[in-house]
Every structure is written in C-alpha cells, then in structure tokens.
Amino acid sequence: MKQLSRLRGMRQTSFAEMHCSLARSLDLVGDWWSPLLLRDLFLGARRFDELVENLGISRNLLTGRLTTLGEAGVIDRVPYRQRPTRYRYALTESGRELVPILLALTAWGDRWATPPGGPPITFRHRDCGHSFTPTVACSECGQPIEAEDVDPVPGPGAQAGPGTRLIGGFLERRSEPVE
After folding, report:
1. Are 16 and 72 in contact (CB under 8 A)?
2. Which Pfam families does the annotation name (predicted)?
C-alpha cells in the first residue's frame, strides 16, 4: 500500500501500518471528502471545476484529495488540454470497486439519515431495468447479509496487533452467551 503523506498531514492518526484491511482502506478513503469525490466521479463529473462547484470544496483541499487518491491508484488524472495544462479525472478499477460500497452507504443513509423530502437519488440496474436498494450479499449464496448472520473467523493473514486484537481468542468467545 502506498504511503499517503498528503492526507497524513491532515490527520492525527495513520492506519496504514495496522494489520487490518478495514483500517488500511480507511487510511485511503476515510476522510469526509474522498467518498464524495468518488461519488461525483461515478456520477459523471470529470473536471476539477465541476467537482469544486458541486461539492463546495476549497480548491486547495480538492487538489490534496485528488493527489492522494491518484497516488493510491483509486483515480486516474489524464491531461485533456496543454496550455494551460488541464486534467480530467476518472475512477480506476480500484475506484470502480468502491462504488458498490458507496451505494450501500447511501442506502444506509436513505434509511437512517434521510434528507427532507426523501432520498435525493435512486439507482436503476442496467441489466434488468429495475430500481433497487443497494444491499450487501453473500458472494456464495447471494443472500443479503445482516450483522447477526456473520461469524467473523481469523483469516490467513490474521495477526494479533494494533487494530486486530479481536482476532484469535476474543472472536471465539464472541459466540459464547453473555451473562
């Protein structure tokens, strides 16, 4: 995982060295602006000024976030004009794989933090043409996943350490009845 020094300067804590996939993912896209930038790129914004206008983000902050996401391989920056040099931005394969996560988080927000008047966006599946509510499903059986349906177990890279102390003995005790 690439070091993200620009974003680090804005945070008190870095999760890049934690032996935890969630912590390391948050180190890349866990600030407030990055998911919104990724959302806007998914929705079709391509140019710096479009992102500034839609999000109301300062130009300096946007520059830093775009640089960080580019260094992490989440977005591509491609010149479209030479004098002065102007760039357009697009999601990489890594960035596109974040879209379902953003959709699921949006669905959670539609349920628990709905803006006045209801959800501002809905989603239609291109293959079947139906509107849908994004869900997280089991990759094996296709059933929707809820917290009570999941038993965490140590994976092949499990190590007890900062951010992963729950792996091992505690996970086994988790299934015991609480008294």
Report:
1. no
2. HxlR
Identity of residue 106: T
Name all domains of the chain by residue range, CATH numbers in brackets: 5-149 (1.10.10.10)
Helix (H, G, I), strand (E, B) or coil at 37: helix
Give me the mean pLDDT over the 24-39 stretch: 91
Detail the DSSP E strand segments found in the chain: 75-81, 86-91, 123-124, 131-132
Least confident stretch, 4-8, 16-20, 80-84, 153-157: 4-8
Q: Contact 15/163 with Cβ under 8 angstroms?
A: yes
Instruction: Identify which of 6, 77, 66 has the alpha carbon closest to the alpha carbon of residue 34.
Output: 66
Long-range contacts of 21-24 (CB under 8 A, 24+ apart): 23/163
Question: What is each CA distance from 161 to 28, 38, 164, 168, in whole angstroms?
Answer: 20, 31, 5, 11
* Number of residues assigned to the chain: 179
| 167: confidence class by pLDDT, cuts 50, 70, 90 | low
Q: What mean pLDDT, rounded, does the chain reach?
A: 86
